[in-house]
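Possible regression after last week's pipeline update?

I re-ran a chain I had predicted before the update to compare outputs. Posting the input and the new output here so someone can diff against the archived version. Not blocking, just want to make sure nothing changed silently.
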Amino acid sequence: MAGAESPGRARGSAWTWRPVARDALLARAFHSCTELQGRFYLVGGLLEGGAKVPSSDTVIFDPAGGQAVRLPARGSPTRSHHEAVLVGGRWLCVVGGWDGSRRLATVAALDTESGAWEVWTANPGNCPPAGLSSHTCTRLSDRELRVSGREGGTRTQRRYGSIYTLKLDHSTRTYCYKEEGCHTASRSGHCAALLPTAGPHPGHQLLLFGGCNSVEPEVIGKWSHGKIKEEPLAAPRLTEQLKRLVSSGQGLRQGPQGLRHHSCSVVGPFAVLFGGETLTRARDTICNDLYIYDTRESPPLWFHFPCADRRLKRVGHRTCLWNDQLYLVGGFGEDGSTASPQVCVLELFV
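New output (post-update):
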């Protein structure tokens, strides 16, 4: 483990990403990163720009000790542009993605207790998408996920995006897709956030951000109070810092337009978006800006915090919340080709 070199705080900036670890095993983009019991599970991804075949590695990173190790289990899926969701507090389910030759809609699962990979099978009546990549997959419960995004290749893209409910049964190691009756704008490389709703009738709604030339998020699901299991507040200190940041007057009141392959994490009532590739510029397309979507008001408010440090540009990266801190893992840097081996935490100066 080499020492982490800090990019420093840009003059006048209210935030930065502070490096806390560095390891070559973590240098990848378009991977997944999922936290379980204080460890980050990284699956697949591209190790360099222009790579034709994704990695088949599964890497476990311990943020407390700053160490990364490769999981020796056989059967780790060769994937990039996929999603991974934790179900049952045990199974890390990898949904869809690119395997080097085609887009898939299959489900592979890592049993984190035994350390073994399993290929789950489709139930009778399964109606899968044509193939998924750069999609989103959101956990609604241990048995139900909501999937939205690209299906098939670019030549088979529809003018709209479909929404699927993916039902999982970890007791039988089976899954089943069902297409919902509603559609979304055609999106790819977007992100999804399950957020609380403000107002007299509290509940939750699932929002899509980016992936097309649109500023406003799109609602693809609403649930009344009690329908979605409430998760305990995992980051009270960071939530308070974000409240002070958006109240500081330093942010621009604007949301991202034409952003894709960015990251998104839910922190209390906030969706925190970072980096990505903009669709609105022909050059210098990789971003290093921070956006915060504040759901405490109705309608919610956007806050944009630009960054002057070009070393923080990222695309195809992931953010992960643990121990009251938001971590940045992997992604390609400014050249869109070199994967970052650094792990950073979000530092707010408020």
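Follow-up from reviewer: compared with the archived run. The mean pLDDT is 91. Marking as no regression found.
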